[in-house]
Structure formats: C-alpha cells, structure tokens
Fold:
Amino acid sequence: MSYLLSSQQLKYNVQKMKDKQLLLDRRYLRMAAIWAENSYCHRRKVGALLVKDKAIISDGFNGTPSGFPNICEDNSGSTHPYVLHAEANAITKVARSNNSSEGSTLYVTTSPCMECSKLIIQAGIRRVVFSELYRITDGLDLLHAAGVETLHLPLDGHPELPFISEGSLPFDEEKL
Ligand SMILES: [Zn+2]
Structure:
C-alpha cells in the first residue's frame, strides 16, 4: 500500500484547504463588519480583528483614544486628527495584552491606510484580509513591498464575490 498521494488527490486536498481558508476568511470578515457597528464615527465605521492560530487575539474599531469624548468629527464634519483607526486600535490593544501579533492575520472592513500599514508591518502581521477597497491604496502598496499577503474579499452583494455555498463544501465543518 502506498502512502504517497496521487497528484490528483494532492490537488484535491490543496483545493479543500483553500476552500476552508476562504470560508474562515469570510466569516472573520463578517465578524469585523459587525464589530464596526461599535464605532461612533459618522463618516465611516471600520472594524478590525486580529486572528492567530484560529483564535481572535484582539479587536478594534475606529474611534477616539481612551478618556476622550466619543465624538470623531468636528462641526464641519471633518474627522479629528486624534481619531485612531480600527487597525491601530486592534494592534495597540494586543500590545497591552499577553498575546503577540507576530504571524497573525488582520481582518479589516476597509483596506488599510499608509499609517496603519506601517504599524501592521512592525507588528509582524503576516496577512491582511479586507472587504472594501479604499480609493487611496498607498498603504496596500507598502504592505506588498514588505511581503505582507493581502486579500480583497468583498462581502455579500458584491458582483465580484466568489460565491461559496456553505452547505455544499466538500469538507467536514466540525473539523474547522
Ligand atoms: Zn489607517
């Protein structure tokens, strides 16, 4: 009996792993989108989750630093310069915990800006999965240059959405 996998079996197994990862990516992104609802900012609500070894190790949404009033915009509707982005809140939250962001995946509802991308690189985050592509993409360019893997995964209702029927996946969800 051979223990070697045929190339067909190997291809099937690799595809199964990719499908499984995509399913998890979509679920964590949906959770990040729900987390964005915590934001009291009016212009844009962004949510972020840091996941490592299948555990959520941190979370964040855009808002003012601790101790500041929960108001993101001034009277003219411009965002206060001291508002922290969701990614920055998730990264600084893990910095105060016993966890490490090294090798983790960041799920964020909007693609990261330049400032957050610098933090992402320095925090040792390996992957960034986002649902909405922000019009300014210099942050993504920086992530690419640093070798951080990025994945644009639009959520429901988007025409480019790679459709996955959760009921028909060829693997046992119990083992996720
Ligand atoms: Zn940012």
Remarks:
- Residues 85, 87, 112-113, 115-116 surround zinc ion (CB under 6 Å).
- The longest strand covers residues 55-61.
- Confidence is low (pLDDT under 50) at residues 158-176.
